[in-house]
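In the design runs reported in the main text, the only information available to the sequence generator was the tokenized backbone. The following block is the verbatim input for one such run; it is reproduced so that readers can re-run the procedure and compare outputs position by position.
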């Protein structure tokens, strides 16, 4: 299974959820565009316990913690989607940068990278005031472009009404609910990876 992890917002929990997915699927991990430090690849590597996952180097490792197009300009490079190719892995978790409409250069966005890679999306929706709007805008853009979506992961303290309306209007399955965690450790990642693996198994029956 190859999937692209994107989100409705910056700091939505993509890296935590990518670690959970990597552990659940015993998959490899790749962050093609990284802006600033610490590197999300290192964070995921520290949270994954299995010994089979491979962690591929970034295609673009940028120095500044800002939008990739801006960080690339500071670093004197231009992000070229034609230079970004999937690693040769059957099981792969690809983590995006920010949300769908985060610019990679003056013309292209994260969603254009998703279209190029042609792999399904898992959308991370963290629950805050305004998350319904951000979730449905993201969902509408994915549907407009006919990008396949494997499901949604809700991250943060539960908000049943927000979750209900997002799920109803998206039509996508909810793969996992991750509450706000006081501490994130390999053990907690394994715990939620087991729940996710079970949920995926049920969906595939």
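Verbatim output:
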């Amino acid at each position: 299974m190859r999937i692209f992890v994107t989100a409705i917002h910056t700091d939505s929990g993509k890296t935590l959820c990518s670690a959970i997915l990597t552990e659940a699927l015993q998959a490899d991990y790749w962050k093609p565009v990284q802006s600033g430090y610490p590197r999300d690849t290192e964070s995921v590597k520290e949270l994954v316990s299995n010994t089979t996952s491979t962690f591929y180097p970034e295609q673009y490792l940028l120095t500044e913690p800002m939008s990739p197009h801006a960080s690339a300009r500071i670093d004197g490079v231009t992000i070229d989607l034609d230079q970004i190719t999937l690693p040769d892995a059957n099981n792969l978790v690809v983590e995006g940068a920010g949300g769908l409409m985060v610019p990679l250069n003056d013309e292209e966005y994260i969603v254009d990278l998703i279209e190029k890679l042609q792999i399904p999306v898992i959308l991370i929706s963290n629950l805050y005031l305004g998350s319904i709007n951000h979730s449905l805008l993201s969902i509408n853009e994915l549907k407009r472009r006919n990008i396949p979506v494997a499901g949604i992961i809700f991250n943060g303290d539960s908000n049943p009404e927000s979750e209900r309306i997002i799920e109803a209007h998206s039509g996508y399955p909810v793969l996992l609910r991750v509450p706000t965690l006081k501490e994130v450790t390999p053990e907690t990642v394994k715990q939620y990876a087991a729940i996710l693996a079970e949920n995926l198994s049920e969906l595939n029956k």
